[in-house]
Design brief:
single chain, mainly alpha, elongated
Length: about 180
């Protein structure tokens, strides 16, 4: 009888340890996914910034279209995130970050489409005021997103902190995003 108690006690400790490790790993994966997502937005914003600065200097719309190819590629990759998630061997990774996917549906899906429209407009050598205003608008949105998401110590932020940041950003900018999409 005592051997069974010891065996059950050891088994309970092992199960509790495994559960703790899985929860800790889940948190680490969430942080890594969100960090990659935020940094990918930063690369899109940086590519737009470079394109805008060069366009202001040269007023060359064709060169702007070429510069926006980088931003388009980076923006196109946003909607596929998160990808290539590896959970513990033998376990499937399930995400409960609904806010993360809501963010993608509200903005990331339309971002590469908007950049592509600006590129197509600029390819002919003339950039319309409407397209230039959209370009500036997308850049401002991404800049604001990055300032909010990259504020503080990124390594110490958890998924809940990012969820609050994302919700605040999209609540404040929902109207502006709708204007840019249409």
């Amino acid at each position: 009888m005592i051997k069974w108690k010891w065996a059950c006690g050891i088994l309970a400790i092992l199960v509790a340890s495994l559960a703790f490790l899985l929860v800790a790993q889940h948190r680490q994966v969430e942080k890594a996914v969100i960090k990659d997502y935020v940094l990918q937005h930063a690369s899109v914003e940086q590519a737009l910034q470079i394109g805008i600065e060069e366009y202001k200097e040269s007023q060359n719309a064709e060169a702007l279209a070429d510069d926006l190819i980088i931003a388009y590629g980076a923006a196109d990759g946003l909607y596929g995130l998160p990808n290539d998630l590896k959970a513990a061997p033998g376990f499937v990774y399930f995400s409960n970050m609904e806010f993360f996917y809501k963010v993608q549906d509200q903005f990331d899906f339309y971002l590469p489409i908007g950049i592509r429209e600006i590129m197509d407009d600029a390819k002919d050598g003339v950039l319309t005021e409407k397209s230039y205003a959209k370009l500036i608008g997308y850049h401002q949105l991404l800049e604001e997103f990055n300032q909010l998401a990259l504020s503080g110590n990124i390594d110490k932020k958890n998924a809940k902190d990012y969820e609050e940041d994302f919700e605040a950003f999209y609540a404040a900018n929902e109207e502006k995003m709708t204007e840019l999409i249409n």
